[in-house]
Amino acid sequence: MGLSTHVLDTMHGTPAAGMAVALYAIDGESAKLLKHVVLNQDGRNPDGLLLEGAAFERGCYRLVFEVAAYFASRGVALPDPNFLGKVQIDFGVAQTAQHYHVPLLVSPWSYSTYRGS
Question: d(Cα 2, Cα 105) in Å, to the nearest integer?
């Protein structure tokens, strides 16, 4: 079916509009960049699904969220070095007939994720 993500900024209580996100396919120790997006006003990919159709294959993937750059762009005073610079989530897709949603709830100090619907 497809792969999507959604990021919520828990510090401000808003979607993480403007956050940059990269999607990689993982093969052993190598990672191949598949897509780089900037999230829209709803904290989602402006083009919809990150992967769908024949491009949505069984395998291992990585999402990398540019957390520090996002919070800095919002005017948040961050320490140097940042506590969270980038959040990397590695996950597997076993059933391409199902939808995989990988949301991120994030602040400059913490994050959580889960497999959504």
Answer: 21
Domains annotated for the chain, with CATH where assigned, are 2-113 (2.60.40.180)
- Exposure class string for 101-113: b at 16+ Cβ within 10 A, else e: ebbbebbbeebeb
Per-residue pLDDT of the chain (117 residues; tens, 9 = 90+): 999 999 999 999 999 999 999 999 999 999 999 999 999 999 999 999 999 999 999 999 999 999 999 999 999 999 999 999 999 999 999 999 999 999 999 999 999 999 998
At 86, give phi and psi (nearest 5°): -130, 145
Q: Which of 66, 110, 73 is nearest to 88 (CA)?
A: 66
Quick check: pTM over 0.90? yes
**28 Cβ contact list (under 8 Å, min separation 6):** none
